[in-house]
Amino acid sequence: MFIVKIFKSLLYPGWALFSAFIILISGWINGGDITCSPNAELIRTDKFTLDEALLMSQGITTDGEYYYTAGSIAAVDLVGIAKWTVDGFEKVIYDHSAIPKEIKEKYNSDHIGGISYYDGKIYAATEDETDTYNLILIFDAETLEFTGEYYDLGTEYLDDGIPYCAVDGENGYLYTSPFHETDCILAYNLKDMSFSHKIMLSEPVDRIQGAEYYNGLLYMSYDVRDSATEIIQTVDVKTGEVKNLFERTVSGRDHEAEGLTVYPMADGSLIHVADYDKLVSVNIRHYSVNG
Prior knowledge:
Elements: H1 2-11, H2 15-29, E1 35-36, E2 40-49, H3 50-54, E3 59-62, E4 66-73, E5 78-85, E6 91-95, H4 101-107, E7 109-118, E8 121-128, E9 135-140, E10 146-152, E11 166-168, E12 173-176, E13 182-189, E14 195-205, E15 208-214, E16 217-222, E17 229-236, E18 242-249, E19 256-262, E20 271-276, E21 281-289
Antiparallel strand pairs: 1-18, 2-21, 3-4, 4-5, 5-6, 7-8, 8-9, 9-10, 11-12, 12-13, 13-14, 15-16, 16-17, 17-18, 19-20, 20-21
């Protein structure tokens, strides 16, 4: 929590006052109507600011018992992961320096994007500044410690980084795609991350920040450029059919739609998506979907 320590050293004993000021500003930044398409309903929003927001500004996944999040702020060399309770979204454990030293030194990795949970492990899409090394790092979900297992997916199909990954344990694949407009989803064999096949899409997709596989569909968070309206899309992994599931207007200004995860919760929510206000806070929004 070195950022917090810096803030405290500069502002103590006014830290509480400063925090209240930031929360006030965050409320103003996140002002505006929160709406969505008629086939979806916003069940609740969990709001985080400052150091907690830094731990969830990129990716989110869940095993149904805990949420797991990732955040990256390259300017201050912070790449964090964290574990939170599903009930109350209370922080359990976290690591502000999640990328191991040996990975940083070998690949210059400085960014974790979308993440995905499967079978006790967290799969993390990891990039370097030049998009030369597109890595999947694997962490233990119990402890958040790096398992030592990682894979370089190369640049043959990923020529502009690796924004997310989504595990399909049912069929034995890990999915990802290029960030900028693409006509396919890439499928890798989960056992060794060797390339398997392309899922050709019925229409191109763009700026996908996170995805999760659930019941035959890849649910995707589409960050619409320069817009306060974002879109949740689905891809049928058998046919490649793309659908706009629902639209979300997140506030009166453009936020960055980040990662999402899909899991039916006790409160009726199914889709859980992170919205970063590009300054001080992250809102985790939980939606139900009808039909």
